[in-house]
Amino acid sequence: MKYKTMTAVAALVLSAPVAFAGGADDDTLAIDGQEMVTKTTAPAHMEGTGIDTIMSGWHFREDDTQSMQADTFDNPGMIFVDQAIDSWNTVEGAAEKSCSSCHEGPESMEGVRAVYPKWNEEAGEVRTLAMQINDCRETQMEAEPYKYDSAPMAAMEALISVQSRGMTVDVAIDGPVADTWEQGKELYYTRTGQLELSCANCHEDNYGNYIRADHLSQGQVNGFPTYRLKNAKLNTAHGRFKGCVRDTRAETYAPGSPEFVALELYVASRGNGLSVEAPAVRN
Amino acid sequence: MASGVKPRVKVPSSASAGEAVAIKTLISHPMESGQRKDSDGNTIPRSIINRFTCDYNGENVIDVTMEPAISTNPYFEFEATVPEAGEFQFTWYDDDGSVYEEAKAVSV
Amino acid sequence: MDFTRRETLALGGAAALTFVLPFRANAATTEELVNEFTGGADIADAGVELTAPEIAENGNTVPITVSAPGASAIMVLATGNPTPPVATFNFGPLAASHEASTRIRLAGTQDVVAIAQLEDGSFARSAKNVKVTIGGCGG
Fold first, then answer.
1. Which of A111, A156, A178, C67 places its Cα 20 to 30 Å from the Cα of B16?
2. Per the CB < 8 Å rule, is A232 touching C61?
3. Which residue of C60, C97, C102 is in closest CB contact with B76?
């Protein structure tokens, strides 16, 4: 009951034409002049969640943070994209290959980020972008895999993701991924830790409200990997999941674990319809 | 030298003589303040970029003294007058003696 | 060893003093830095503009802009930081405007101060209070 009331309050605030303190704002985001979809109708599978409009986390940030993302040059996350361009062209591993040996320029990755995580038929598993990057490194390049949420991995994810910036997130939820998606959904609604909080308690029931001084968003991952002012580096989605779960005072799943892969698939699918914003800038 | 230091500079490639142009610079650097402690309680020594300069054809545009209160990945935005065709020189000076340089040509 | 109430209070007072002193020393530093920059000259209230957010979402990266037409130099101080100096912008002959932006670290809610040396050699000061929020989500 309590949560229902809070959701109703949040909805009231959000539906008001003027952005009240606490709600999502009504600004629009254009990155280097390219308009992003930061608010849109929730995908059909979210019926019954109480969320009609899905919103990018961008709407929940202060103006100064928002404007840092509007210009590719002002966005400090792009430093790491530059670094990853070097990695892209660097030959590593026993096969003496670089990313560019098979894929040519990074622009060949256009569209990839918008549909990940996705089913890999050959491997018979749901793969995140990070898993695919490491599969390339191990199988094609015969190089050491990146640590799942390491800086070089986040940078490579950002380089690949930025090729799809402005494209619509369109993650498949049916067919062979259906089981994993259901598992992710279950995790999303499972309370964890001493605080007994699920993802939904904050990001579905209370987005737009404040948790102490933090403005809660809908927990979308369309901007990941994302540059956080807090630690001045790119943060992966799994790194963020880990931080959230730890904040509920629980033992967390590991980045790259099957649980977080499933959770990423489910959370990504809640953003179907938003633009890929990565690398976004958040607090 | 701090590892992976990478300068980025945004300058228009052409301008009319005497025009004021906007310049933005960003460089990857941890800017270790000297105020932080590691997990053993030992102070992490200061390691920052302490000075940034921008010149055009040898004449100075801006010269910034930088302190540990400048954020990680230092960013600057300012305006320069372009009197004739030439080249901007950007220089960052690291505490450890390293110097990072970048140049951008401008046609008039 | 037993302490009377009075002795304990006295000890507490001494301890409090020891803790307060470094902050006093700090405040003096801001003043010293200003004096060093101005040579003790008078400082006017008009002539330099400092733009900073009222509320900074994260103290790690706070965007600021300083502007002082005709100025040769602008010094920025964060009075509440462990070490107040932030940056000094020296403008050369090819500076098209005497304005610059950067991103700074603020240890907490405090006054940020900009002091400019103007064209005629006089000094101007501007200050802005910036509230720094500390979020609930460390993740």
1. C67
2. yes
3. C102
Across the interface, which of A65, A243, A246 has its CB nearest the CB of C57?
A65
DSSP C57: S
**Whole-angstrom Cα distance, residue C87 to residue C107?**
16
For residue C84, give Cα distances in angstroms to C26, C48, C79, C105: 8, 19, 5, 10
- Which helix (H) or strand (E) segment holds residue C16: the answer is helix C5-38
Partners of B6 on chain A (C-beta within 8 Å) are 79, 82-83
pLDDT of A76-95, one tens digit each?
999 999 999 999 999 999 99
Interface predicted TM-score of the whole assembly (ipTM), two decimals: 0.93
- Cβ within 8 Å, pair B78-C93: no
Question: Sign (positive/negative) of CA torsion A204, A206, A208, A212?
Answer: negative
Q: Which two tokens stand for residue C69?
A: 């037409």
Q: Which of C51, C55, C58 to mutate to test the interface with A (most CBs of A within 10 A)?
A: C58
pTM over 0.90: no
Cα–Cα distance measured from residue A72 to residue A168, given in angstroms and rounded to the nearest whole number? 19
The residue among B28, B29, B77 whose CA lies nearest residue B54 is: B77
Encoding tokens for residue A176? 């062979």
pLDDT, one tens digit per residue, over A241-267 is 999 999 999 999 999 999 999 999 999
Cβ of B5 under 8 Å from any chain C Cβ? no
pLDDT at A29 over 70: yes
In A, which residues are within 8 Å of C132 by CB distance? none
CB distance A129 to A161 below 8 Å: yes
Cβ neighbours for A202, distance < 8 A, ≥ 6 positions apart: A211, A216, A219, A244
In chain C, residues with a C-beta closer than 8 Å to the C-beta of B72 are 60-61
A244 noted as active-site residue: yes
In the numeric block, the tokens 């979308």 are attached to: A220
Please name the residues in contact with A104: beta carbons below 8 A apart, sequence gap of 6 or more: none
Instruction: Give the Cα separation of A146 and B36 in Å (integer).
Output: 28
